[in-house]
């Protein structure tokens, strides 16, 4: 699986789950992915501001989806493509 497909797979799964999901649960929801693949995808999404990773009091890593940033990024790309077309 290429990196873009991998990231899209994790992003879609997160959006279906809702606003947040423990990392261990994400591994259960994507059994075809290795821990390294999951980490790579979440790291990329985090760097783009589409998710945040938090640590709960009991050392549980939780991935929090930032729908607002995702929508803003998509809107920005749309505006940029319109500007570059003109």
Describe the structure.
A hairpin with a 5-residue loop joins strand 2 and strand 3. Strands 1-3-2 form a three-stranded antiparallel beta sheet. The protein contains four helices and three strands, in the order H-E-H-H-E-E-H. Helix 1 crosses helix 3. It has 86 residues and is α+β, with helices and mostly antiparallel strands. The model has no long low-confidence stretch (mean pLDDT 82). The radius of gyration is 14 Å and the shape is globular.
CATH fold name = Arc Repressor Mutant, subunit A
- Count of helices? 4
Principal-axes geometry comes out as globular
Q: Runs with pLDDT <50, length 5+?
A: none
How are the strands of the biggest sheet laid out side by side? 1-3-2
Name the helix and strand elements from N-terminus to C-terminus, one letter apiece: HEHHEEH
Radius of gyration: 14 Å
Q: What is the CATH H-level superfamily?
A: Winged helix-like DNA-binding domain superfamily/Winged helix DNA-binding domain
Mean pLDDT: 82
Please write the CATH class name. Mainly Alpha
Assign the CATH architecture: Orthogonal Bundle
Structural class: alpha+beta
| Number of distinct beta strands | 3
Question: What is the domain tally?
Answer: 1
